[in-house]
Design brief:
alpha/beta, Rossmann fold, 9 helices, 9 strands, globular
């Protein structure tokens, strides 16, 4: 099994390098060792639901200094009550956290928090596949409320956190959660990095002032890019600080190349909170900036708002071909091992 996993990891690395991406620092960090396990309760929100979370605080923490904080929301596979599953890495899901904690400079400047959503709940009460939902008709979930309570009532009261340098990112279900929280709390975050999640494009005006770098594959068959595309188009038209990365041919695993993006950390730390009153007045539509590291496009293929057309299949086909190659290589390794045993 170790050999099979090694082959798959090597193939993933080859695919990343073929896209011009070099594996980032921090890849070998064990987050269960680096991040403390804690629990949070807020009886005003729920008497029964407990929010497990992991937190990294610099060993040199100094109350006289202010710190940045990164809030990271996991995907569906990380749900549970064990306070570990969401930070045990699978397919580089937690790479952003490991890059920050593994960086010699940022590890002294950042507090990193990763809450765990309970098994029977979600960050956003919406279906995954459609890729969009109507926020005004979707009540905020208990876990999502607890996350914000944790941030505001617990962490900001316990640590000297710079209110102008609070960042958020999430993948898949956590991508939904990222879009959702920045729309519900538009004056709270300094910047957001939603990955392969759904959104409500009709709320683009609400977050036009906020720097956002979104990543989604046009060939994603798990969470369609309809909501992301709609947000990107509307925010582009509003001349917002929006960057979009098309992560084809990775399908739903958009975080794999995106969290490897060499300029991502520099982009994040360069952002500070902007008040909505300071955002620019829209004039002529602007083109969204794009990342040059992956298969980026200047305009997503789906229509904005409530378009339910199927996404272009080309990226999915490339991703499927890559998967077939990986499976073929794995089968070959297994066959070789069996022949050796017979000999």
């Amino acid at each position: 099994m170790k050999m099979i996993k090694t082959v798959v990891l090597v193939l993933n690395a080859i695919l990343l390098m073929s896209c011009g991406i070099v594996p980032a620092a921090g890849a070998q960090i064990d987050l269960t060792q680096k991040m403390q396990a804690r629990e949070y309760r807020d009886p005003e929100i729920s008497r029964n639901i407990v929010l497990p979370y992991r937190i990294y605080v610099p060993s040199t923490y100094d109350e006289s200094k202010s710190y940045r904080i990164l809030l990271w929301l996991h995907g569906n596979s990380g749900r549970g009550e064990d306070n570990s599953l969401h930070v045990i890495d699978e397919k580089d899901m937690t790479l952003l956290l490991r890059r920050v904690i593994g960086d010699e400079t940022l590890s002294e400047q950042f507090i990193v928090v990763a809450p765990q959503c309970p098994s029977n709940d979600k960050w956003v009460d919406a279906g995954y596949y459609p890729g969009y939902y109507t926020l005004d008709k979707t009540p905020q979930t208990i876990p999502s409320q607890l996350v914000m309570s944790l941030m505001q009532k617990e962490l900001q009261q316990s640590y000297n956190i710079d209110p102008d340098r609070i960042y958020i990112s999430g993948i898949s279900m956590g991508g939904y959660g990222t879009w959702d929280l920045i729309c519900r709390y538009p004056d709270y975050f300094a910047a957001a990095m939603p990955v392969c999640g759904g959104a409500d494009p009709l709320l683009a005006e609400t977050i036009r002032h906020m720097p956002i770098w979104a990543a989604h594959s046009q060939g994603d068959s798990i969470v369609r890019p309809v909501g992301t595309n709609g947000m990107v188009k509307r925010l582009t038209a509003l001349e917002a600080d929006i960057t979009y990365t098309n992560t084809d041919p990775y399908g739903h695993d958009a975080w794999m190349p995106f969290y490897q993006e060499p300029t991502l950390l520099d982009w994040m730390v360069s952002k500070t909170r902007v008040a909505r009153a300071q955002s620019s007045t829209p004039s002529e539509p602007a083109q969204s900036r794009e990342s040059s590291q992956i298969g980026s496009v200047s305009s997503p293929s789906s229509e904005p708002d409530r378009d339910v057309k199927k996404s272009l299949p080309f990226g999915w086909l490339i991703g499927a071909a890559a998967a077939v190659v990986a499976i073929g290589a794995t089968i070959s390794v297994i066959a070789v091992k069996k022949r050796k045993k017979k000999q």
